[in-house]
Amino acid sequence: MADEQHYLVGLDLAGRRVVVIGGGTVAQRRLPRLTRAGAVVELISPETTPSVSAMADAGELTWHRRAYREGDLKDAWYALALTDDPDVNAAVCAEAERSRVFCVRADNGIEGSAVTPAAGEHDGLLLGVLSGGNPRRSAAVRDNVLDALRARTVADPGEDVEREQAGVALVGGGPGDPELITVRGRRLLARADVVVVDRLAPRELLDELAPHVEVIDAAKIPYGRAASQDVINKALVDNARAGKFVVRLKGGDPYVFGRGFEEVLACAEAGVPVTVVPGITSAFAVPAVADVPVTHRGVAHEVVVVSGHVPPGHEQSLVDWDALGRMRGTVVLMMGVERIEQFADALVKAGRPADTPVAMIQDGTMRSQKVVRSTLKEIAVDAAAAGIKPPAVTVIGPVAEVGAPVQRS
User: Among residues of the chain, what percentage have pLDDT more than 70?
Assistant: First the structure.
């Protein structure tokens, strides 16, 4: 393979005309980064993929529904020849050469005057990798470098130089698997001075923290010891006021039965800046990894997520169990293990058939995941026999028996 001869450079395309010829899957991959860079994109193609068409409908680009014609590159700053017709791509590159416009040719990169690097972003860094015409190699190296930066096995001096300002970041850690936290959540966690962590947050991430980071255990164990919400709020506010950047690491999504907004209000009342980073909610993610879709075409057109913190009939309950019994869709029950018999009885009394399928998933996404499939009539007995303990997500409705578990490779 010839040595890499390209000169890697960053182009400021904001407000500048960029012409893209071809609206297929290659364009679908290239267009989002161009529009994000602020380029004034004009797409020329008789047809497009649905996603590209949606970008045009949303006003992100201008779509000329026709084939390429000589002169289409006039006043362009950059061009991309992305059709599946080599002759058209060659003609676009020829016009670009005469017009002194740099041009990417997707079907034969070395014939264009520019190439698109395998690009990725990390914490304000834009990385680009070129490998002399081997795009798979470029992509693999890019992915490895990004993974290393995120895992902090490759040093990024910027993380130390540009210290996060004092305040609080409320971060949803996802359902438990450390790889299911969002990219932004992991980035902010790496910058924390203090981490206030829940029991259900991804525990393995704590081992990646720098030695100076203070970890405050805010574990909330059902029917056991629990950190007072006032104490947690005070820890967030006091540390932020002391000039520290505090990450409140929670399981799932902070706003789905996570008391997240209570903590946001406490910070706001104290004048502490707070950032909210949503997380993947366990209500939907845990059933998904157990091959239980919470909706399925022709089976369920509605999903209700319900807290099992208090039983049916309790004076503090805000749940209309009679309404849930009348509906035919999916009920996702959180925090309902200890009282599952009461919840099942309430649904049956309200009209749900006793043979309604139920799936209960303990420790979803974790190595210790355990799944029990049963019915409303039998779930209490079957869950007890299987030794199911919190945390577990219970899915009630026809979706719980849509099909056999998917075979995994």
Answer: 93
Q: Is residue 62 classed as helix, strand or coil in its secondary structure?
A: strand
Burial (CB < 10 A; 0-12, 13-18, 19+), residue 50, is: exposed
Q: Which residue has the tokens 């018999």?
A: 341
pLDDT in tens, 31-66: 999 999 999 999 999 999 999 999 999 999 999 999
* Burial class for 98, CB neighbours closer than 10 Å (0-12, 13-18, 19+): exposed
Cα-trace Rg, the chain? 27
Rounded CA-CA distance 193/330 in Å is 41
Annotated catalytic residue, options 193, 220, 253, 363: 220
Rounded CA separation 331/360 (Å): 12
Comparing 111 with 268, which gets the higher pLDDT?
A: 268
Other beta carbons less than 10 A from residue 35's beta carbon? 17
pLDDT, one tens digit per residue, over 244-263 is 999 999 999 999 999 999 99
In the residue annotation, 84 being an active-site residue is answered as no
Our CA angle for 113, 115, 117, nearest 5°, is 160
Say whether 244 is catalytic.
Answer: no
Cα 140 to the chain's mean position, in Å?
21
Helix and strand counts by DSSP (H, E) for the chain: 12, 17
**Residue-wise over 174-200: b if at least 16 C-beta within 10 A, else e?**
bbbbbebbbeebbbbbbbbbbbbbbbb
Summary mean pLDDT of the chain? 91
What's the rounded Cα separation, in Å, for the pair 370 and 389?
10
| pLDDT tens track for 199-239 | 889 988 988 888 889 999 887 656 555 668 999 999 999 99
Query: How far is residue 405's CA from residue 290's CA, in Å, rounded to a whole number?
Result: 7
Residue from 177, 193, 198, 363 carrying the catalytic annotation: 198
